[in-house]
Specification:
Blueprint (H helix, E strand, L loop, with lengths): L1 H11 L8 H4 L12 H6 L5 E5 L1 H10 L7 E5 L9 E2 L3 H10 L3 E14 L4 E8 L2 E6 L6 E7 L2 E8 L1 E5 L7 H4 L11 E7 L9 E4 L4 E7 L4 E5 L3 E5 L4 E15 L5 H9 L5
Length: 273
Amino acid sequence: MILPELRAWLAERGWSCILDQESAAYLPEAGAVGMTRAELADREPDLVVVLGGDGTLLAAARAFAHTNIPLLSVNLGSLGFLTEVPLADLYATLQAWCDGTAQIEVRSMMRAELFCAGAGKVTRQWDALNDVVVAKGTIARMADYSVSIDGQLVASFRADGVIVSTPTGSTAYNLAADGPIVMPSVNCMVVTPICPHLLTIRPIVVPGESAISVRVTGVPNETYLTVDGQEAVPMHVGDEVHCCRSENSVRLLRLKPNGLFNVLRSKLKWGER
């Protein structure tokens, strides 16, 4: 099991370890007591080690978005576009961090605010590392959306939904919806319609400082706003989600500089026949 070995490795080098509730549940025999991720962020650790897949990292990134604490994400999942550090490199990366030779890669985040027409105000807000998606619910009918950028109407159209993605999220749902792959260092956001009933509308890459608004103008049944594929809230006719670049960012710890194309060749089998 990884956790006991990892805790022992850190303890041998003088580091104490605190766990979140999910991790502590794997160590009942050790009497480990876990904290919520919000409580962990308040403790201001020197390093956050994330064991899992991209979903685990996305949740941790939002929890620590307001800090400058680096995240070491170790891939235990199947795909892992974000969790690029393989388990075999865990201790080498930790040792490089201890020695001050590890690389830190900064990823921008997106601030999303939900404006509810019924309340006449912003009711919730989030920071997203990957994307914000407005899409229909279970019924197999399209909804109507209106997209504006910097206060200018782009288009009103019928579709399954709309994705607003960061460069990091360009290889997530955006990629599955035929959106472009964007290098993480590019200062931009991507707006991608999902299966639009309008053949001429295509994904749009906009400057990172843009203000993007997606408004629900008609729904067949249920429409939801989803943040990083994990947090979902219902939206109604007249509701809008406002997206812009967040003041917060995520710092990813690497053994060596990020190799996006290495990841794409490995995960998407680029160049293989």
